[in-house]
Design brief:
Helices cover 28% and strands 27% of the residues. The protein has eight helices and twelve strands. The protein has a six-stranded mixed beta sheet, with helices on both faces. A four-stranded antiparallel beta sheet has the order 2-1-4-5, covered by helices on one side. It starts with a strand and ends with a strand.
Length: 259
């Protein structure tokens, strides 16, 4: 699914990622945890082929080694969902139009859609329990509903890999739980794509993410199975704070700063 070896990334002369070695297999839904400036966004860009490592590294995604493949074709199989996409939409587009626009790789529709495209979009929205929003203007629905619509948009090309980049960052408590329930339901379906979930908050990490990775100052300080990664010792190393963890019956972790 994904393999990165000996990757170092420089941006404008500054080293952003150092000695990245990471492998993710199909079906290993994974979270990437780190504070602001840890390198999470640059790692996403590396996976997407939007930044390049220095000579000697190897980046392989979906069985294709970057530098020896058609990147535009690979990107069609990777869906990137970020709340920052919300600001790129226009006020005149409905939720249905935003979803259909995923076929064209645009944010918003600039043509008349075909009947089969409409049917597929409504079917995807139905799977995510947001079909009733199809005629609503995108900018008039809640933040949580907007993220759902953007996930539906991402699924229009039947991706093999979905990257949820800080999907919960602007959501209130109710909207966040609403979205995490949706992600759990979607991820549990047969043949669902592998999901990479980027976050800086432990509370956002659903039990559906069975693997994890912690970034700090551009380095992977730990990767592995979820419960082995999410320990108080590892979180102290990541955030330089004494964090007390509480695990609920459903497998969610909640953190309390211990002074």
């Amino acid at each position: 699914m994904l393999k990165i070896k000996n990757a170092n990334v420089f941006l404008e002369g500054t080293k952003i990622l150092s000695d990245i070695n990471w492998e993710l297999k199909k079906g290993e839904n994974c979270f990437i945890l780190g504070s602001n400036g840890a390198g999470k966004t640059t790692l996403v860009k590396l996976i997407m082929g939007l930044v390049w490592p220095v000579y000697g590294a190897e980046v392989s995604v979906l069985g294709n080694t970057y530098g020896r493949c058609n990147l535009s074709e690979i990107r069609k199989k990777i869906a990137w969902v970020s709340p920052f996409l919300q600001s790129w939409t226009g006020p005149r587009w409905t939720a249905l139009e935003v979803v259909i626009s995923g076929i064209d790789g645009t944010i918003g529709l600039f043509r008349k859609p075909g009947e089969k495209e409409i049917e597929k979009a409504l079917s995807v929205m139905r799977q995510l329990d947001c079909e009733t929003l199809s005629k609503h203007f995108f900018d008039k629905v809640s933040s949580g509903e907007q993220v759902k619509i953007l996930i539906a948009r991402a699924l229009m090309t039947s991706p093999e890999l979905i990257i949820l980049d800080e999907a919960c960052v602007h959501l209130d408590l109710k909207s966040r739980e609403f979205l995490l329930d949706t992600i759990e339901d979607f991820a549990s379906k047969k043949n669902s794509p592998t999901i990479i979930f980027i976050t800086q908050r432990i509370e956002d990490i659903s039990p559906v993410f069975n693997y994890g990775l912690i970034l700090k100052n551009g380095r992977i300080i730990l990767s592995g199975k979820r419960d082995a990664v999410l320990t108080e010792e590892n979180l102290f190393t990541a955030f330089d704070m004494n964090i007390k963890l509480h695990r609920t019956e459903d497998g969610r972790y909640w953190s309390v700063l211990h002074k």
